[in-house]
Specification:
single chain; about 220 residues; mainly alpha; 9 helices; about 50% helix
Length: about 220
Amino acid sequence: MASNALHTSLLRPPILHILRAAGFHATRPDVLDTVVDLAARYLSMLACKAAAHAQANHNDLVPTVIDVRMALEDVGAFQPQISAMEERITGKEDTRGVDAFIKWMKGEENREIRRIACLVDTEGLMPGVDVPADKEDFLTALKKKHNKTGESSRFQGTVLGGSTEEKVVRIEGGPSESIQDWAASLGRRYQAESSPLSRQPSSALTSGMSSPLTDL
């Protein structure tokens, strides 16, 4: 399965849950694909802007909370919000947009989707339904459902699991014990060969021609 198709398939269940939490009980497949595509484009744009702010602020591609906040401001999620120049002039940080966003996220209009995401207590909300003590989100429950063996390593190294630990590959019969050591020695050799001190003298100095240094 192609990467784009896999990511679209993983995004479709959350969009279905969001639509269900919003009160929709049915939808056409083409409408669902359109909403999924819009959500994917929005998340991609938000991630690109967060990475751009991270690169500009601290010269790496790992965004911090500040970078994500600036990206949310760029896409218009935080409103109203004064500019950074106005904040410097007034000497006061404008948090109205952040406060309104948090209030909206924790409001009653998003209570159902928070229940589905196991972010609120579901006790008493569904009479007659046994809610497990260890509440899990739908993706974790889905992974356990399809993992009959119970081995957590099945999804290791994939987008559904954690990253795999790098194992040291030993090299036998050479001066380097691992690929990392070999790469480091290769880099040192390249730097030594490209250094001006390691360059061969010019032909004029190597020949028997007279020079001020050789006449001394």
